[in-house]
Amino acid sequence: MKSTKEQRKQIKIRQKMMGMSESDYRAFLSGWDVGSCTEMSREQAGEAIAALDKQMLSYGICSKGVEFWASAPGNLKTRYDDLLPRDACFATPAQLRYLEKLWVQVTRQKTWVRAMDAFKAFLQNRFHVGDILWVKREDVGKIANVLKVMQDEEVTKPG
Q1: CA 122 from centroid of its chain's CA atoms
Q2: I need a labelling partner for 59 at 20 to 30 A (CA). Which of 85, 87, 88, 150 fits?
Q3: Which residues pair with 41 in a beta bridge?
């Protein structure tokens, strides 16, 4: 089945955000033996979007929209540092920021507040933790692994 209009739009947005030249873009598409994103299948387009997202993250370019990041509170690099000193059984501020970063990559919410509300619900439903602040150090790996699997499933999910 052909790629959707939304997928093609997302590919083009990412191309522009990265400042990818037309020749680099065509070389990128050649990995799927196509000359244009309109020739891609849904699965190929999903793979291309995921590959572009990984490149954007490695270049330090975020894949979320301006509205999303504008709604984020304060300095995200020092978020949760005010919790120190903290009981050793709880996750460190760096671990909490890491979990948030993974969540931001899988969430479909359009604003930071909605994304964090969804994360809170996710933690409650899957791990019986009422808030990210109460995540135990021993559970960080489990939560991170689930989020990574969700990220991988999003890449291969049709549509």
Answers
A1: 15
A2: 150
A3: 2
Q: Tell me if 144 sits within 8 A of 98, measured CB to CB.
A: yes
The stretch 110-123 carries a mean pLDDT of 91
Whether 49 and 74 map to the same domain: the answer is no
Which domain range does residue 11 map to?
A: 5-58
The answer on pLDDT for 113 being more than 90 is: no
Question: Are 96 and 28 found together in one domain?
Answer: no
> In this predicted structure, what is the pLDDT of residue 61?
63
Compute the distance between CA of residue 128 and CA of residue 124 in angstroms, rounded to an integer. 4
Residue 141 vs residues 12, 63, 145: alpha-carbon distances, Å: 35, 24, 6
Joined together, the tokens standing for residue 76 give 């995200």
Domain count, the chain: 2
